[in-house]
Amino acid sequence: MTAPAVIRMPQLSTHTCSNGLTITASALPTVPLVQGHLAVRLPLHDRQDLAVYDVLAACWPDLPACARFEQLGGQVSINRRQQWIVLSLVGTADLMPAIAVTLRAAVDAQYTEDQVRAAVTKAAQQASLVTAHPAVYSARRLWEQFYGYLPPVADPSPHPDDIATVSAAQVTEAGARCLLPSQSHVVVVGATDPDQVVAHFEQALASWTGTCHSAPQATPSLSPAPQRRIVTHVREGWQQTHLRLAAPSRPRHDHALFAAAQAASLILGGSFSSRINTALRERHGLAYRTLASINDHLDSDVLIVEADVNAVSAAEAMTELTRQMTEFATSGPTGHELDEAIGFITGKYALSLDSQGGIATCVLSYLTLGLPLSGIADIPARVAALTLTDVREAAALFHPEHMSGVVCGDATHLPTEWS
Fold first, then answer.
1. CB contact at 8 A, 306 and 398
2. Gap between the Cα atoms of 328 and 344, Å rounded
3. What is the DSSP letter of 29?
4. What DSSP assignment string belongs to 145-198?
5. How far apart are CA 318 and CA 286, in angstroms?
6. Are 55 and 171 in contact (CB under 8 A)?
7. What pTM was computed for the model?
8. pLDDT tens for each residue of 105-137
């Protein structure tokens, strides 16, 4: 067995400002660039919240400050990942002060009717494209089955009809509710001195207090529906059938358990050589795509198993997937599979922490998951120390009896029940 990669903690300078904002900086001068990321937690309570915050996100790239930053040669991007919206700025090292100015302008922005109308059009077009994708339909049906309803935080996209009703007043009010420093993180990585970066951004954002004077309303926690069922959803004319399964995972705050769950999901379906991909796709030719992974929703994690299969072989694919999951949950991985998984996970961490984007992504992930940054080194170390017993216990969670889910496809080839 090749020894797993040794993961060294990146040099981080972290400071919590008096207004509650957390600033984390890391130096990696491999290229003369700096990237700054502002992550803001969204209070998603209903479908309309999802639509309003999508429009707010669509407003940001067109803000004058973002346009000025791009004129200087920088790049601006926005993305929403579940309950977080992230504004990302990348530029040459000399643009570090401009990154701070642009972030400050974004949190102070006022939104005109013209800006919001343009953002509504853009957001509605994007939502229409997303909603038309078969995988999005299947994801929505999965979370409806797993939770008993579709939580906004689990919805891949707002509905175009909801977006169409969003007004400038709603966007302004939503900004007041979400743009709070105490609910936000700034991460800066690049060819800079971390301590100087923290001091500079703290000064630039010191007067940011937000305009919401009441305590932010907490997003409701999520609990799986008590009944475990797998149901069918008819989609006439689909050439593929989507199998989507979910089960509660181990708590992410226990690093040892989280490491074991990562390894188990990788061995079952997280790589091209994983069990379900080898069986369904390579050996039997039943699947176009397979996946097993850990998905985070608010303060909990969920195990996911997916397969996009040939519609005419849906029943055979379901049977084989069940067999593979049952065998894995009952017997766990082999020693060779565990060694391969440890090498893959630790190697992936090592590669990620060798680039500016990888460090930024990793730090943002840990901050938004509520994990201590020490986990960046601790969790790979826990992975490297895993035993077969550790991973067999995690593998047991993938047993079909623990799963809720959906089978979406053309009625001609859908079995009446999961077997």
1. no
2. 19
3. T
4. HHHSS--GGG-SS--HHHHHT--HHHHHHHHHHH--GGGEEEEEEESS-HHHHH
5. 10
6. yes
7. 0.91
8. 999 988 999 999 999 999 999 999 999 999 999
